[in-house]
Automatic annotation (TrEMBL):
Alphabetized Pfam families for the sequence: HTH_1, LysR_substrate
Protein name, as recorded: LysR family transcriptional regulator
The keyword Signal belongs to this UniProt entry's keyword annotation: no
Domain of life: Bacteria
Keywords: DNA-binding, Transcription, Transcription regulation
GO MF annotation, one: DNA-binding transcription factor activity
TM segment ranges: none
InterPro entries: LysR-type_TF, LysR_HTH_N, LysR_subst-bd, WH-like_DNA-bd_sf, WH_DNA-bd_sf
Signal peptide interval: none
Native source organism of the sequence: Burkholderia cenocepacia
SUPFAM superfamilies: Periplasmic binding protein-like II, Winged helix' DNA-binding domain
Ranges of residues in domain HTH lysR-type: 7-64
Family named by the database record: Belongs to the LysR transcriptional regulatory family.
């Protein structure tokens, strides 16, 4: 035990290279150290093990009997230490894992179809459990370890949370085409005079559209609040409602002859759509692979 307290990992690595090379100069090159430093380390090792370890015979260094006994256990110890320190290699094709991801209906439409196709093709043993929550709830779920990833726009981030922007999003409006002027847009006063639909998890949630209106000291009348996007097309068609949402939500609407997409009559700040995770998952090889897969599908790759 006394000798164990005198040795450090660098000495074991030096011993491993010396026993492999049987040559101080070549060992110094492999270790990126000076020859005197390696000679000094060898002297310390000889003292610790109570054995010369390397002896010169016929002009070259050879292992002593004790050094030969050390080769196999030393290789084993350093191999185990390497596996302990370095993250294990991740093989998606053989992996079995369950990931819990929180995202909005919007995030699911943008990311989920392509992500699931990627998983089924490249990592069929990985399962997803997707949940929907408010922005604040997603942040708390990350902190509490209830979810592995959260996709969206989260409130002020905490120190233990990481974020990777996936894309920048802007806003557009949609309304029944027959209820719009021929030029297809509404001036601000006309826009405000119309009733509006809002996609939100609950009433009273902060959102970018109403923040932009507040800067103008204006308010809109919200006639319908719903938590999901899927029914929005049929909800808007045949009514005087206006829906203002993230632009990517409207890709399919452009193919619906009943509806027309147009620009908001005032400036609404764009936002970064990002994936968020806790520090406890940051170095997880499987988690890293999943984050990279999400980044690829979000960018259209």
């Amino acid at each position: 035990m006394n000798n164990l307290a005198r040795i450090d990992l660098n000495l074991l690595v030096t011993l491993h290279v010396l026993l492999s090379e049987k040559h101080i100069s070549r060992a110094a090159v492999r270790l990126h150290r000076s020859q005197p430093a390696v000679s000094h380390a060898l002297a310390r090792l000889r003292d610790i093990f109570g054995d010369p370890l390397l002896v010169r015979r016929a002009g070259r260094l050879e292992l002593t009997a004790r050094a030969n006994e050390l080769v196999e256990p030393l290789n084993d110890v350093l191999g185990r230490l390497g596996a302990l320190i370095e993250p294990p290699a991740f093989d998606p094709s053989a992996a079995t894992r369950v990931f819990r991801i929180a995202m909005s209906d919007y995030g699911a439409r943008i990311v989920l179809p392509a992500l699931v196709k990627t998983l089924r093709a490249d990592a069929p043993g990985i399962e997803l459990i997707v949940s929907q929550a408010t922005r604040e709830a997603m942040r708390m779920q990350l902190m509490d370890g209830e979810v592995d990833l959260a996709l969206g726009v989260l409130p002020a981030m905490q120190r233990d949370l990481h974020a990777q922007p996936l894309f920048v999003e802007s806003f557009a409006c949609v309304a029944d085409a027959s209820r719009l002027p021929r030029r297809g847009e509404l001036a601000l006063d006309a826009w405000l005079a119309r009733p509006h639909a809002l996609v939100a998890m609950r009433d009273g949630m902060d959102n970018e559209v109403d923040r932009a209106l507040a800067r103008l000291r204006r308010e809109r009348h919200i006639a319908v609040i719903l938590p999901f996007w899927g029914v929005a097309n049929d909800l808007i068609a045949g009514t005087d409602l206006v829906l203002t949402v993230a632009r990517r939500n409207l890709d399919r609407v452009r193919d619906d002859a009943r509806l027309r997409v147009f620009e908001p009559p005032f400036l609404i700040d764009s936002f970064e759509f990002a994936q968020h995770w806790h520090e406890r998952r940051h170095g997880d090889a499987a988690h890293i692979w999943l984050r990279q897969a999400i980044a690829r599908v979000a960018s259209g790759g």
